[in-house]
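[Discussion] Sanity-checking designs against the backbone

I'm trying to build intuition for which residues belong where. Below is a structure token string of 428 positions. I'd appreciate it if someone posts a full sequence so I can compare it with mine line by line.
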């Protein structure tokens, strides 16, 4: 606003900070200030005008750079449309940056940073999941009483070799301690499920009194509804009797009945942060590490650490059945020796493993149309069952060549040429 004063002088008031100088001029001219008019013109309270006229100086805050700013280019690349990696939750991105880029801040600080950065905030607003229904009653179960079972199904995962594989993760959660167990597999067949439960109960050292599950076909012949109790299939019913637990299927369409395992599904979305980064063997190890991490962290729902709570719960689990019964449900493993070419034999064909296992005995399992090769409980190789005589994974072959020809200038190119020739000599 402009104020015209005598001697043909105009004084412009554009902001509150101009008021002290204006007061000084008006006092020099022995003129009265109309504070009400100033307040109307500037759109503020009269008391604010009075405060500034009397010399009020607001505190100035220095804009402090966030220590997260140095990761801005990394975050921008991860959240770009060109990125294969997906982050459904801010927490997953925070964990990924901690594990891979040295981020050192609390999760709450990181969430605030994302919220005040419009381009990053928009990414998570666009990818919001459907919120869970509200009004679900919370309940707790006594130690040793219950476990909940479910699958994280049909995850399309792109390996670092560019192959897209559909994987599933079996999840078992002890309802009291919230201790979790995960299984990565390419299918959800009943033999895989029963083997997973057998090995999980063995690792726990006991069996809960009841198992809450949905109406998956590997458990139920007929779904439970509001009006019918459903029907457990004969094989799973026998498994439950052998291990001494009751099957408690949810009412169809009410997954909240097994809410403790449902919340774990969000944790498994962290897999998508590593799209294109892992081989199948490395993805398997990632799942093991993720399971370890969540079992050693404070659970948000209980405020307790699952692995410590499990120590109290373990003694209240029921006793395991005999080893003979357990073995009848376990997927069989055969010990085989890795030959000098870093291969193991299955039937009349050979499959590669990493070079460091040459000459060692490894465990071979065959299920879901794949060969799974383990060493000391660690998955070291994974191959589709093939009619080819020699089945090499390119990385295994490159590693073996590098050991046998350490001075060769371009091992990768040589490996590609040799594998192409092997493919012609030993076609499918």
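Best answer:
Here's mine. Compare freely.
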């Amino acid at each position: 606003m402009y104020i015209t004063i005598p001697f043909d002088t105009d004084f412009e008031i554009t902001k509150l900070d101009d008021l002290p100088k204006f007061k000084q001029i008006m006092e020099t001219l022995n003129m009265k200030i109309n504070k009400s008019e100033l307040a109307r013109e500037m759109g503020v309270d009269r008391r604010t005008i009075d405060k500034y006229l009397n010399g009020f100086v607001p505190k100035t805050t220095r804009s402090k750079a966030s220590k997260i700013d140095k990761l801005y280019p990394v975050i921008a690349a991860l959240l770009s449309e060109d990125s294969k990696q997906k982050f459904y939750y801010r927490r997953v991105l925070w964990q990924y940056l901690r594990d891979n880029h040295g981020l050192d801040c609390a999760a709450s600080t990181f969430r605030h940073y994302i919220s005040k950065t419009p381009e990053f905030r928009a990414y998570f607003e666009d990818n919001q999941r459907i919120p869970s229904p509200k009004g679900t009653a919370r309940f707790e179960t006594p130690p040793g009483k219950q476990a909940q079972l479910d699958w994280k199904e049909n995850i399309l995962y792109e390996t670092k070799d560019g192959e897209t594989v559909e994987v599933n993760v079996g999840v078992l959660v002890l309802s009291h301690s919230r201790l979790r167990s995960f299984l990565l597999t390419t299918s959800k067949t009943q033999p895989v499920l029963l083997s997973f439960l057998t090995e999980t109960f063995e690792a726990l050292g006991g069996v809960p009194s009841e198992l809450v599950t949905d109406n998956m076909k590997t458990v139920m012949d007929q779904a439970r509804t509001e009006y019918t109790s459903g029907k457990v299939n004969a094989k799973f019913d026998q498994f439950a009797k052998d291990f001494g637990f009751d099957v408690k299927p949810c009412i169809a369409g009410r997954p909240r009945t097994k809410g403790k395992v449902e919340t774990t599904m969000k944790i498994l979305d962290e897999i998508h942060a590593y799209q294109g980064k892992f081989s199948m063997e490395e993805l398997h190890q990632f799942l093991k590490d993720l399971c370890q991490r969540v079992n050693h962290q404070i659970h948000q729902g209980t405020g307790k650490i699952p692995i410590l709570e499990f120590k109290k719960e373990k003694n209240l689990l029921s006793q395991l059945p005999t080893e003979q019964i357990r073995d009848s449900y376990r997927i069989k493993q055969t010990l085989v020796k890795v030959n000098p070419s870093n291969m193991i034999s299955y039937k009349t064909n050979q499959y590669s493993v990493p070079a460091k296992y040459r000459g060692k005995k490894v465990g071979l399992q065959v299920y879901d149309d794949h060969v799974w090769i383990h060493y000391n409980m660690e998955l070291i190789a994974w191959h589709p069952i093939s009619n080819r005589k020699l089945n090499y994974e390119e990385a295994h072959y490159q590693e073996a060549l590098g050991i046998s020809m350490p001075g060769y200038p371009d091992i990768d190119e040589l490996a590609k040429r040799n594998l192409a020739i092997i493919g012609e000599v030993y076609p499918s």
